[in-house]
Design goal:
single chain; two-stranded parallel ribbon; 16 helices; 2 domains; alpha+beta
Length: 363
């Protein structure tokens, strides 16, 4: 086997997509597994030709047979064995599939980004109904990723052996069922994905926010998650390096999320408190760090999800940083706007606010 063949063998996704793409030269299919989800029901995003689903054993066998028949590249014995085993391994696996017109080599970079984005948004959608501890338990984030054992051997007259093993725990994954799919569709998450891949200024802000929120959600250390959630919020609503963070964010978050005066006042107070604790974490102020609780980050995470959904639903009005900043200035001095679309019931906002007043997150 020459060096070129070894390089091809190491590259699973491009080679697999190339093989699949040759079945149909017009439409290419990018398929990759996701360890985060257990897709009992297909999550379909037809507007962007993406699905999160489980590939059955029958489908994987049929795909393998089709490729054997139609793809010349796989007629050599070693390629045939390698790629057949790869395709066969997709059986009963949850995957993200992106379909695009064009040659496989041309669609792969964009398809990879879209698959990553959909996976992140799907996970972030669970913030509204699943707390951080439960999510991390399902994904085995706090568990050792590999089996570990140790052994202690005594010397001299005190001869003994002691050993323990900590076995690897496999993650459950988050179930994508009918309820998951309905919630995802009704709360505007497909539109959030579309706006993230659109060509406008706010798209970059939304992407940066979701990336940091995703990292915060998977972060097992609470103090570290505070800073990541803070960066997520700043990526969305801070427009200048010279702006006072707590003041600017507390106003803008309140204005965008609610037209109600009392809710705005509560939200503003929450953001200021969050930034006070975030400052304590960053600068080592132990007194402020004592106020750090899981609910503080939980509530902030939920507010950010709602912000992203609302901004995506009102992109025609807030299609640039300047437009959003001007709108917030008008809200400060005028009456609350009545033409803003809210894609979620108000109880999601109330639940996020209430988290800050609770002592602990329920499992």
């Amino acid at each position: 086997m020459d060096k070129n063949n070894v390089q091809i063998q190491k590259s699973l996704s491009p080679a697999l997509d190339s093989a699949i793409g040759n079945i149909c030269p017009v439409e290419s299919r990018y398929i990759r597994t996701t360890w985060m989800f257990n897709a009992k029901t297909p999550l379909l995003l037809p507007a962007i030709s993406v699905s999160v689903r489980t590939i059955s054993a029958n489908e994987s066998q049929k795909l393998m047979q089709d490729i054997r028949k139609r793809n010349v590249f796989m007629r050599h014995s070693w390629e045939n064995d390698f790629y057949c085993r790869r395709i066969e391994s997709l059986a009963n696996k949850s995957v993200i599939e992106v379909r695009r017109q064009g040659d496989p080599d041309q669609i792969i970079p964009a398809a990879e980004k879209i698959a990553d984005l959909v996976e992140k948004v799907a996970l972030i959608s669970q913030i509204l109904i699943m707390n951080r501890r439960e999510l991390q338990r399902k994904l085995a984030i706090n568990s050792p990723r590999q089996s570990i054992f140790d052994i202690t051997i005594g010397g001299g007259n005190n001869k003994f052996l002691r050993s323990k093993i900590k076995a690897e725990r496999s993650q459950q994954g988050i179930d994508i069922d009918e309820k998951f799919c309905k919630r995802f569709q009704r709360r505007g998450f497909p539109n959030l994905v579309i706006q993230c891949i659109s060509d406008h200024e706010v798209s970059k802000r939304l992407n940066n926010t979701l990336n940091w929120l995703f990292e915060s959600r998977l972060e097992p250390q609470l103090a570290a998650s505070v800073t990541k959630t803070a960066i997520s919020l700043e990526s969305l609503l801070i427009f200048s390096d010279t702006e006072p963070l707590a003041k600017s964010l507390s106003e803008r978050v309140a204005f965008i999320l609610s037209p109600n005066f009392e809710e705005r006042k509560s939200i503003s107070k929450i953001i200021k408190k969050f930034y006070g604790i975030r400052s304590g974490v960053v600068h080592g102020n132990q007194k402020r760090q004592n106020d750090l609780t899981p609910n503080l980050v939980e509530g902030a995470d939920r507010l950010i999800v709602l912000l992203c959904l609302k901004m995506a639903s009102n992109i025609a009005k807030w299609n640039s940083a300047d437009a959003l900043r001007e709108w917030c200035e008008e809200e400060r001095w005028g009456s609350p706007s009545t033409d803003i679309i809210t894609p979620f019931p108000n109880f999601y906002l109330k639940n996020a606010i209430n988290l800050f007043n609770q002592k602990s997150v329920q499992s």
